[in-house]
Amino acid sequence: MDPDLYLYVERARARELRAEAARHRATACPRPAPGPRPWRARLGWALVETGLRLVHTGTPPRHATDH
Length: 67
Fold this sequence. Notes:
The chain has about 70 residues and is mostly helical.
């Protein structure tokens, strides 16, 4: 038995998926016009940055059992 036989199956599946994606792209609706999204992206990244700063305070959390 050929040890690379699984590659044949994987390549065949990849071809099927590419063909399915091409069919989907051909029948999909066109992309909507870009709206006022830049502020949403900036706000989202600002929230992520704030959350990361809160998580990375440098001091370990105190547990209820520590006195």
